[in-house]
Design a protein that fits this description.
seven-stranded mixed sheet; alpha/beta; globular; 33% helix; two-stranded antiparallel sheet
């Protein structure tokens, strides 16, 4: 579903199209996928073509009907595609309490967000997301770590990922690094124009 009357929130982020394809074709076969900050469920819908199950988590109430509609449009069974309207950090606790774990965790947060309890900043709080995701990740699982913050250059983003995983004593391999699709124009002398950074991390063991 696309809504062209809702400003930049059209229902799908076209700049992530190559990442969705990579997730679908190379990382989701017979896997249980956790999609955090899921919005309208685009990553989940793409992955569910090959995945065993998907779980979409977003704090916004509108995410449920939007995601359900997109699964419906693609004639996909909601019995295998779960939706939770919940703060992501609360969901980590919920998953641990209920013994839920995943083969792939997709993390694509907004640059900044605020709810009644706390504020979230990509540059400040991303390590907490990685740590929480690792607690619900199956052995030899994958993290798909994304940010569209132009204030977080790729070098700094990768450094944060490496430092966080090293501090946690995790054995890992960066398997893919992606950015904007080729048809999204950027300027070589204006680094913020290359705002999208996506890092695929294989956790070893």
């Amino acid at each position: 579903n696309i809504n062209l009357d809702d400003g930049p929130m059209t229902g799908i982020f076209l700049d992530q199209k190559d990442v969705r394809k990579k997730l679908r074709d190379h990382y989701s076969q017979d896997k249980d996928i956790l999609n955090l900050f899921s919005y309208t469920g685009a990553f989940s819908v793409a992955a569910s073509e090959n995945a065993r199950s998907t779980t979409s988590v977003d704090l916004a109430n509108r995410a449920r009907p939007l995601t359900e509609a997109n699964f419906g449009l693609n004639t996909m069974d909601l019995n295998q595609n779960h939706i939770f309207i919940m703060d992501v950090f609360d969901y980590f606790k919920y998953a641990l309490r209920h013994g839920l774990s995943y083969d792939v965790v997709v993390i694509d947060p907004p640059s900044f967000a605020r709810n009644k309890k706390k504020t979230f900043s990509v540059q400040k709080n991303y390590p907490e997301l990685i740590e929480g995701a690792l607690e619900v990740l199956n052995e030899n699982g994958n993290l798909v770590l994304s940010t569209n913050s132009s204030a977080f250059p790729q070098k700094a983003f990768k450094k944060m990922i490496n430092q966080t995983l090293d501090q946690l004593g995790v054995d890992y391999t960066i398997s893919d690094v992606m950015g904007l699709p080729k048809d999204f124009k950027s300027h070589p002398h204006y680094k913020p124009s290359k705002y999208l950074k996506v890092v695929f991390v294989q956790i070893n063991g």
